[in-house]
Design brief:
Structural class: alpha+beta
Distance between the termini: 57 Å
Number of helices: 2
Largest sheet: 4 strands, antiparallel
Number of strands: 6
Strand content: 25-35%
Helix content: 10-25%
CATH class: Alpha Beta
Order of helices and strands: EHEEHEEE
CATH superfamily: RRM (RNA recognition motif) domain
CATH architecture: 2-Layer Sandwich
Strand order of the largest sheet: 2-3-1-6
Shape: globular
Radius of gyration: 19 Å
Length: about 100
Amino acid sequence: MDNKLYVGNLPYTMRDEDLREHFARFGEVASAKVMTDRETGRSKGFAFVEMASGEDARSAISGMHGQSFGGRALVVNAARPREDRPAGGGYGGGGFGGGNRRSY
């Protein structure tokens, strides 16, 4: 098992330090990063935590998944690799646009 965990459904007040503190109960935390919006700096409600070992990661998943923080049940599981997104923001094709094809 990989040591990197996805943590979702976080309260928007959760910070990196808080996350590190909560996960440290299950082993050594190599890194903890709450994802934030680039423009506003506000939390996006999810984070990534990297534990020092696979055993620590499994322990953290079983101990933290479903736990309530700030009235929200955490989702904790093994992080998956990031999927490539299309260049250009993903806009293209479909939708309402162009053409004078009227079919009433």
